[in-house]
Specification:
The protein is α+β, with helices and mostly antiparallel strands. The chain contains 12 helices and 15 strands. Bound molecules: the ligand C=C1C[C@]23C[C@H]1CC[C@H]2[C@]1(C)CCC[C@@](C)(C(=O)O)[C@H]1[C@@H]3C(=O)O, 2-oxoglutaric acid and fe (ii) ion. Pathway: Hormone biosynthesis; Plant hormone biosynthesis; gibberellin biosynthesis. Its cofactor is L-ascorbate. GO terms for molecular function: gibberellin 20-oxidase activity; metal ion binding. Keywords: Iron, Metal-binding, Oxidoreductase.
Length: 377
């Protein structure tokens, strides 16, 4: 897999500047374009195959059953997540307790924001090296393999939980969007609460205490990402989100009615069918490190289509910035030595934003980078 590693060939300011001026991804225009700009065309070995991917039968966790505390339900839930996380790191969560109208508002309000004129969206423009704000296909950040999507990302702090953090990204766009900030603040609060319930179960399934990971993430400083994939006239030439493993700890994703999420399992791309009553949950690199490599952070991507826009709400659970990520001692012994160096999420996040384009090798590349830096000091 080619690695857009800015370390080796750091872009000169003029090339970045040039990119920022020469190519702007205006979805309202490009979605009708049959002549695909070269930068959006992915290499043959990464292009989506034209025939529809086979569906993946994803284990489904009934979270309400687990939270009821009934011992049979707890054991069943623990076995289900352990098997899923050892295999491909993906499972569905139903009976999750998140208000259905909050989810539909969060989905619906994405249209309100992304259907704005580009000039308005760019008032919340994400700056190179930062992980929040509006981005249209990351022109100015990447020079090739541009994703066919627009994104709006913002930080959520479980400790502060004051919605003006989220609101600032919307208020920049327009005063009328203050209400959107409230909806996404409430949505992130619900995701944070759901994450902690899942962390209890992951702790049990790994044989550490029920509270270990829940405590570690209770003051999480997470990332909320709104993904908007416009229709594409040549969907087999590009990707909405390229093949990657999430560098974060846990991802809680809500697909709308349009399919597109695919996971690389047993050497083939398998699709996850949208289910509006379920969240798709996957282990990220940081939790793979916390599990000392027992649970897998797996390769996945998003494909686009030529008929309708696709939206996904992705909540990326992240520990507070400077907490040390280190597997608990219960998961380390002579047969299971520590697999990864200790690190902080803030260092790993900066690595993905400034030095390395997250892909299938992100955690290994980061570990090498950390060890190489340590050997120089
Ligand atoms: C920490 C993060 C970086 C990305 C957003 C979160 C978790 C997933 C990462 C990402 C989606 C992986 C694929 C490449 C990426 C550039 C993207 O397509 O958005 C990644 C995100 C990012 O760097 O903004
Ligand atoms: O949009 C999707 O279904 C997947 C997006 C994704 O993997 C991500 O944003 O990390
Ligand atoms: Fe992802």
């Amino acid at each position: 897999m080619a690695i857009d590693c800015i370390i080796n060939n750091p872009p000169t300011m003029s090339s970045l500047k040039e990119q920022q001026t020469s190519l702007v991804f205006d979805a309202l225009v490009l979605q009708h374009e049959t002549n695909m700009p070269q930068q959006f065309i992915w290499p043959d070995h990464e292009k989506p195959n034209s025939q529809k991917s086979k569906e993946l039968d994803v284990p489904t966790l009934d979270l309400g059953g687990f939270l009821s505390g009934h011992s049979g339900a707890v054991k069943e839930a623990s076995n289900l997540v352990r098997e899923a996380c050892v295999n491909h790191g993906f499972f569905l969560v139903v009976n999750h307790g998140v208000d259905a109208s909050l989810i539909s508002d969060a989905q619906r309000y994405m249209d309100l924001f992304f259907e704005l004129p580009l000039s308005k969206k760019q008032r919340a423009q994400r700056k190179v090296g930062e992980s929040c704000g509006y981005a249209s296909s990351f022109t100015g950040r990447f020079s090739s393999k541009l994703p066919w999507k627009e994104t709006l990302s913002f930080h959520f702090s479980a400790e502060e939980n004051s919605y003006n953090i989220v609101e600032e990204y919307f208020k920049k766009t327009s005063e009328e969007f203050v209400q959107l900030g409230k909806v996404y603040q409430d949505y992130c609060h619900a995701m944070s609460k759901l994450s902690l319930g899942i962390m209890e179960l992951l702790g049990i399934s790994l044989g550490v205490s029920r509270t270990h990971f829940k405590e570690f993430f209770k003051d999480n400083n997470s990332i909320m990402r709104l993904n908007y994939y416009p229709p594409c006239q040549k969907p087999d030439l590009t990707l909405g989100t390229g093949p990657h493993c999430d560098p974060t700890s846990l991802t809680i994703l809500h697909q709308d009615k349009v399919s597109g999420l695919e996971v690389f399992v047993e050497n083939e791309w398998r699709s996850i069918t949208p289910n509006s009553n379920a969240f798709v949950v996957n282990i990220g690199d940081t939790f793979m490190a916390l599990s000392n490599g027992r649970y897998k952070s797996c390769l996945h991507r998003a494909v686009v289509n030529n008929k309708s826009p696709r939206k996904s709400l992705a909540f990326f659970l992240c520990p507070k910035r400077d907490k040390v990520v280190s597997a608990p001692d219960e998961l380390v012994d002579e047969n299971n030595p520590r697999v990864y160096p200790d690190f902080t999420w803030s260092t790993f996040l900066e690595f993905t934003q400034k030095h390395y384009r997250a892909d299938m090798n992100t955690l290994q590349a980061f570990s090498n980078w950390v060890q190489e830096k340590a050997s120089r000091t």
